[in-house]
Every structure is written in structure tokens, then in C-alpha cells.
Amino acid sequence: xxxxxxxxxxxxxxxxxxxxxxVVEGFYGRPWTxxxxxxxxxxLKKWGMNSYVYAPKDDYKHRAYxxxxxxxxxxxxxxxxIAAAKEHEINFYYALSPGLDMTYSNAKExxxxxxxxxxxxxxxxxxxALLFDDIEPEMTKADKEVFQSFAHAQVSxxxxxxxHLNCPRFLFCPTxxxxxxxxxxxxxxxxxxxxxxxxxxxxEILWTGPRVVSKFLTVEGIQEITEVLRRPxxxxxxxxxxxxxxxxxxxxxxxxxxxxxxxxxKGVLTNPNCEYHANAxxxxxxxxxxxxxxxxxxxxAISADIKLETExxxxxxxxxxxxxxxxxxxxxxxxxxxxxxxxxxxEFQVEKEAWGPITKPHPPVTMVMPIIPIIPSVNTCxxxxxxxxxxxxxxxxxxxxxxxxxxxxxxxxxxxTVTGGETIPPLPNVVMNSLVSAKKIVTxxxxxxxxVSNLSIPDKIPVPCIQAPIMALKESVEEDxxxxxxxxxxxxxxxEVEDITxxxxxxxxxxxxxxxxxxxxxxxxxxxxxxxxxxxxxxHSTTEPMECGSSVLSSSPKQKSSSEDVVMSESVxxxxxxxxxxxxxxxxxxxVDLGEDVAKELSNEDLSLLCDLFYLPFxxxxxxxxxxxxxxxxxxxASVLLGAPKKPSTDASVKPEVQExxxxxxxxxxxxxSILALAKKFSVCVNKELLYDLYxxxxxxxxxxALLNAFVQWLALAxxxxxxxxxxxxxxxxxSKGWKDTFMSGEQEPWxxxxxxxxxxxxxxxxxxxxxxxxxxxxxxxxxxxxxxxPYVFTDEEAVYSICHKTCRDGSDCSExxxxxxxxxxxxxxxGPFITINPEFCMVMECGSLGLIGYICGxxxxxxxxxxQQMCWLPAMCLKYPIELLESPELTPTAKDTITHxxxxxxxxxxxxxxxxxxxxxxxxxxxxxxxxxxxxxxLVTVLLAAFRSNGSFGVHVCINRTDRYMHQFYxxxxxxxxxxxxxxxxxxxxx
Length: 992
Description:
Shape: elongated
Helix content: 25-40%
Radius of gyration: 31 Å
Distance between the termini: 64 Å
Largest sheet: 8 strands, parallel, barrel
Strand order of the largest sheet: 1-2-3-4-5-6-7-8
């Protein structure tokens, strides 16, 4: 054998044939690069593994164009890969997937297959594989005339190829590659029995287990398939595969497979995360598992004690403690994880440059979820996100523990909404050529058509006739002229309903507030609309309509600055809820404190936290469960704060239940702080290639955690009714009946649970935020600047007034519209009533050294708010701005209009608006910040709507001038829809 067993060798390597242990690059999406594969070979050898299977589903000539021979350039790259594998004593299996369009009875097709594999054998390859997974199981008419069954057709071609190559190492992947796809069952499957009985005995057969993604592999299951196949299987393990959901990443240890299975298997190949650098844990822990003979959780006498120590009060698990001493042949997942983290940590300090922008290497396509139980369609791990293959039907029913179909259908619909984006038809995956370039699609003006013997189609297919690939490339003309164009190509999101751009001279952008012309009619004070005449109007350029629900507002690409893109942080203080609110003593560290974390390098503890946040398909990590449980508990038990003193003099005067809530809220805040500190340190690690692989996932989880903590700080104000739980409970969440059990059972394929922990956390917010939280704009480059969302405190008044002043003229400063002694009048009209009368429904956003950059203010009941405004705010304003000021010749029309508003206020919001949308709000973000990250307004809105929902409101409205097109677009992107309009105003509303 080319690879000798390491000193503590694999248990099964004493067999005549070496135990196959390694990696199969068999996922859908962007393939790994040549350099990454060579790096993998070195790691495999270092960790005592011996095999790699080249089978990237979307690589150019592996599947879609399997008939095409390699060019000289491609051959050079592939030869170098095979040579590198041999140098590291790794068996390089070259795989082809010809089943999409192959006619098995056509001798020319078989000759083409032989010629392709012969070419690869000339590169030095000595091991091969034919994969027939994820294909239509029906034979062509020509094949039906020759072969008895589909299995006979595949076996005939495979045996012929195997004998032709005279190759001792050969793998075969059947179309029925797991128990759930065996028709009608494993033992009764005519297909599997034919494969087992007719396939050459020296060919190894791949098997994924009971499911496409199997939570457990059992001795009984392996014995069953071994009997049917007449040989032990090689496990194609999709435990860590993440190509079926763009929000999920799996950094947990190899588990759910006892090392006692090793003598019963021919090997195990992990098909891991699409992101190469996310697979250190998956591969390292598999390597460790392959050298063990038993597992601690079953066979170790102290394992029961470990479980008792780690099981949490609320069904989760705390920090799992592994025994101090474990024999080398005993496998414990948490101990294996610790060892993998220690091996992974140095990678973060290896200086590497990223070869492209931040992007997820698998397409985030939103699909409508079918009724559960779900029978996967056709994709090894991405059956719900590709249309390149047809559906395979299975008659076997999967069990769903303690939850009915109606519940699960609703849960599935919830899951499907949090993946982001509108429902769109699936598109074919992009075809890449990773042997030549990791950055470009392999098309120029035309794509050579594959040889399809049973179809009549042109020799050439013009590119415009082909549907846009899921991962479309955006290259500007200027970039094409650059010598380093390959490093600058950007792989964008799959589909944009409207590509909104702005001209450089645009001045009608608005950050939450619109100031229409003086010709507009007088509107209610305190809304976004303020009738201000612009004596020197700037020319307005035309913008395109904004995409409803999109994450990106109109912005010029030329204005983007990578260094100014920001991630969101958690709140830093709470307030008492009175008109003048003081900062809570239990506030989180400020951004200044977070800045100290940036200077620190990542530690083992940081990576342990990262792995817990992105654990396994059917299991959240311990810290992830703590976040879920603690937030749910704090939200459910917040009513104990009602009637409690805001600032108790001594702990003795606080009720025990209040003390418990406050203590747990501090612990929750501390955990949120640790996650954001991790994100900041992660954002500045020197290995940019690794950073760009994982940053989008860290960005997502940090954003959700920040919003949860902001809501907890708002709960601490105790401005909600005693029946808060009747308003905030009832939606489908991790804690809904049957949901957690279904998730953890492994009876469903994991793509049912869209979004992972990030989605589970999002659904805990007491507001139907829909897609909003997953539509944050991902920065072009990692940033260590973090936003902080928190409740308003009285010391914020000056900054809030300043933001209002800087943005109330279509997003621009309004200084020239008012005399020097009346510069504060716009804010007194637009935001003053909110922060004075309803400070408990005001939130602010900070950004490090920039201070406050935005705010959102609301009123739970608009009618009550205006009555209070008439009683306590307008009289003060009439004294501050007496009617005599109108006689001043220096006053502009805008200033006169505002003063007149205070003295002649009339509330006339239509009742039909209030009936469905009783609450009201105003949102404002500094223009430059909104340009850099349009999602900041969405974050503010989400927290405010959660506060409204907790008080029983399910609808909010805003009022804008009907001539203000940009504000209409702005609020449409925040989920608002037009309710009513008259000659002067437009009312927009949103239910939640």
C-alpha cells in the first residue's frame, strides 16, 4: 500500500486492504482550489488519513461536461494534484458523475467514458470512482431494450470500466445510496440487491446511512446493508455537509458513529462544509475517531457521571467536561473537539490573502418547504436548492416524534422564510473549473455542448440562452482591463429583483425623514413629514424603485468603503423608562472596551465558542443552547419586573424572582458580549482566506445576538403589560411542542431546519420579522466596527437632535433653512415629542468612536400620543417659539411653517389607518452610515416592533408627503406598504 499506518495506526489497517479514511469533495457549489486541495493532502497525511476523492458536483468536467477531455492547462493542474497526493501518500480517487445524461447501452458513450478515465490514468491516477447519485432513475427507451433494469445498466457499464482500467481501487455510488431512498426498503430493494449481486466484488460501494445526512450510524444498519451489498460499505458521510442551507455551518466534532463500526466498514469519507477552511474540526475528529476502538459515552464507566454534570436545567447542555484521562483507543466527541481546536488555532495566524470577496460558496436559494415528513429530491446534500437533477420518490415513511403534520408544515414555512429573499424558481448551479481558476466560470462567448447521443441539440449553445447561474459573476469593464482581474472578480448573490443604483450627484436620499416642499399641506407633528420649503433646492436625480424586502438600499458602488462597513453589537445600557432615564449599572462593555479585544489574538476558548455556535445538523452546541434557553426564560419571566423598584437601595429589598431575572440577564449580556468580542477578534485575523470563508456566518450570528440583547435591555425597563406572554408567545420556535424533539431526533433531513441556530434565535424575537434579519448587507470586507442598539437615555438628547438636524432635509443638513437662533426647531417638531413623552419606545444606535449614528422613536398608541402632545409638549413649544417670531423679516418660509404648526396643530389621522395600524414611528440614520450599510434601519425597526408586539400592538404606520418618492421607497424596504393617500400625504403601514 502507498500509505503506511501511523504509529498509533488505524484499527482496521491490519486488514488485507487498507481502511479507506479521508475526504470526498462531493458537495454542490463552488469547488475548492488547487492550492487548498494540496494543503488538504498535507493535513491528511499529518493526521494519519489516506484517501481523497475528487468529485466536486459543480466542477466543469466532473458532471455537467463529463465527456469533455482535459486541455493541456487543465491536465497540468490535475497532474500536479495527483503528484501532490502521491507525495503525501494519499490515494487520489478521480470520480466522474455521468448519470445525468448517459445512455448505458450506447457503445460510444462507454468508449467516451473509457477515453476520459484513460486520460486521467495517464496523469498518474491509480484509483477511480463512478457516481450515479442524484439522477433520474428512469432508463431511456434505448436502455430498456437492452437492460433488464436500471441497476443492471449501471453495473454493466461499471464492471466494463473497472476491468478495462485494471484498477484495484474503485468506488461505486448507487442511485439508492441511503435507506430512505431504498425502494421499497433496503432488504427488499431490487436495485440494491442487483448491485450487490452483480457488481464486481473488488469494487467498493458508497453508502450514506439511514438518511442523506444521518445523525446516527448503527451496527444493525451497517450489518443490514452489508448483507444486501455482499460487502462492507464505504461510508460517504454528509454529517458536516452544508450545501443545502446558506445559513448553516458545521464545526462540531464527528459523532453519532461508534468506533465499533470500524471493523464492519471498508472505510469512511467525509463530505464536509463547502468552505474549505471550516473543515479542520470535521477532518481532524474523523481522523481521531478512525484510530479508536470504543467510545467514552457508551463504554467508559465515568461517562454517566459526565452526562449528569453537563445536562442543563432546561433540556440543554452546559460545558461538557471530558474525563482527565482517556486511553488513546477511546473516542469522546468533546475531547476530540478540543484536540481539533488546538490543531486549528495556528491556521488563523498564517498570513494568507483572500482571492475574492466575502461570499458563501453555495447558492442561497429560497425554496418553498414541502409538508413534513420530507422526502429529499435529488441532491446528495442540496436537494432543495438545485434543479439540475430530477426528483427521486421514496415510499418509505419517516417518523415524526410527537408533532402532527399541520404543526410541522407551519414550522417548515417558518424555516423557509428565514433564509432570506423572495421565493424564486431554482436555477442551475454555476459550472466552475477549479483546476484552472477558482474565480471564474468556464464560459466565454459560447459553451461547448456536451455529447448527448439521445438528444438533438446544437453543437454550440450561446451564453445568453442559458439561465443565469446561481453564483453570477460581476466584472466591470475596468476590472477586465486590470492585470489582476482574477483577484477582483466578485461572486454576487444569486438573484436581484432590481439592481438599484444611484448617480453621484443624487441628493434626495433620506435616512428616515422626509422634508417635502412648502406647497405640501400641514401634517401631524412628530411624524417623518415636516413641511419645509427649500429656498435653494438641489436638482433631484431619478432613482429606480426599491426592491421590497431587499437588504440593500440605493447606493453608489463608488461610495462604498470596505473600512467603513460595520457589524452590529449588542446594547450597552438600559434605562428606567421615565422621561429622564439613567444608564443601568449592569450595562455591557462599550465599543472602547471591545476595541481592546481586537488587539488580542484568538484563543482556544474563542474557537470553542465559535464551534458551539455552529455545531452539527441535529445538535446545537452547549453555548448555543444556553443562548436559546436564557433568552426564552428572560422573555417568558419578564413579568416579575412589573412593580419592582427601578433602582432598589439594597439587594434585600428586591424580590428573589426579580434578583434571579436580573442576574440571568447579566449572564446573558456577558455571553452576548463574548460572542461580539469573538467576532471582533475574528475580523482582524491575518489569515484572510480563512476569514473570508467564515466571516458571513459570524456576521449573521453576531447581528441576531445583538438584537436579542437589545430587547432584553428593553424588557428591563418593564414597560409592558402583565399579560406580555399572551402577545409574545405562540409563534413556532425552538420551544414549540414537538419542534426540539423533531430537530434532535434525526428522523428528518436537516434541510427541514433552515438557518440553524441563527434562525432559531431569530424566531425567538416576539415579532414576525420575516426575512428582515437575514437581509443585512454583508460588508465587502471584514470590519471591526460594531453597532450597538440600546434603549434611549436622557443623555442622548443632544446627539439625537443633531442627527435629526443633519438629515431632515431629504437626508441632508437643514441649517440654511433656519436662522441661527432657530436651528433646533426641526428636531423639536419631529423627534422632541417622542423622547419626552415616550422615551421607553425610543432606541438609539452607536458605532464606536462615531457615537450615535441613528435612532428610532415610536408611540404605542398614536391617538393617545397626540393627546399627550397637545397637553404637555405643544404649550411648551408655543412658549419657546412665540407667534411674534412670524413677524421677523429674516424668517424663511420653512421656519414660518414650523412655528405656525406649533400654534395651529390639528390631529387628523384617518381612523381607517388607526384601526389596523394604531402605533406610529419615526426612524433616522445618518446619511453616510445608511449609504455604507442600509440594514441599520432594519435593525432599529426590529427592536422597536418587538417592543410594540410585547404591548399588544400588531400594526405601525408612518406618514410621508406624497411627493417624497425616496421616503416611500425607504419605508417599503422596511416592510411597509401603502395604506391610504390623499392630496397631500401617504400613510404607510406594517403588520408584525
